[in-house]
Amino acid sequence: MSQTTTTGTETMRLPATMKAWQWTTCSTTLEEAIQLNESVPLPTAKRPLASGESLIQVHAAALNQVDYKLAELPIVGRIAIPKPATPGLDFAGRVAEVGPDCDLTVGQMVFGKLEPKQQFGTLGEFIIGSKAGTVPMPDGISAEQAATLGVCGLVTYQCLAPNVKAGDRVLINGGSGGTGTFAIQIAKALGCYVTTTCSGKRPTVATMMHFLIPHSRKCSALQGSWGRRSHRLSPERCTYHSGKQLKPL
User: Fold this and answer.
1) Eight-class DSSP state of 112
2) CB 215 within 8 A of CB 190
3) What is the pLDDT of residue 188?
């Protein structure tokens, strides 16, 4: 059986079940514990949508370390997460149904993030999005691009925006990682002078971020080795990728 939801001129026919990657017990790694279930009840079969919530058909999902590390923890994985569980927090998709006092509409493309310890994560075809964690997807980006923003993008913005201003000099430790690539772009968009470190294996990733916001402040990328005791960047190994000598801020 299936059901049909209608809001305004948009109509979406909902299936009775969905496909989802699930795990029940995780004694080693989540990769070994997870299995594809092709007949999972929709999240709304367990409870109705609360105020401001929406049922979302997932078009793209992104994974973060928290998605598997929580499941692999002995206590949290066994007790805190309802089973069977589907991993995944970041998503982009289409609104399939809306709850009371929801500002979204059926058929609207949205993106966002779920909170940890969810039973129905974004590696399932449908999820329940909260009012605070779901926003309309802007024009000009794909679902795959939007799905990467939730966890890393929000955490990075919350760390930077209240603490910097235009003209500040910002050092980003690890500019080629998940939060690092966002930090370079956000800091530059806020008008900061950005210097970032990265390993010698991935210098072009951090350097490339400079060209994504070409009208903003300068961004320089450094590569080097870390001292085992002090964990300070070794000056003799640090260079601009343009070949210039490292200069102090």
Assistant:
1) E
2) no
3) 92
87-136: pLDDT as tens digits: 999 999 999 999 999 999 999 999 999 988 889 999 999 999 999 999 99
Q: Which two tokens stand for residue 156?
A: 């990075």
The two structure tokens encoding residue 164: 């910097």
CB contact at 8 A, 56 and 128: yes
CB-neighbour burial class of residue 203 (10 A; exposed 0-12, middle 13-18, buried 19+): middle
The two three-digit tokens of residue 10, written as one number? 């948009």
Q: With DSSP H G I counted as helix, E B as strand and the rest as coil, what are the percentages for the chain, rounded to 5?
A: 25, 35, 45
In degrees rounded to 5, what are phi and psi of residue 191?
90, 20
The 3-state DSSP class for residue 168 equals coil
Per-residue pLDDT tens over the stretch 210-233: 555 444 445 555 544 333 332 333
Long-range contacts of 141-146 (CB under 8 A, 24+ apart): 142/60, 143/59, 143/60, 143/92, 143/93, 143/109, 143/111, 144/60, 144/92, 146/60, 146/92, 146/111
Residue ranges of the chain with pLDDT lower than 70?
1-11, 201-249
Residues in the chain: 249
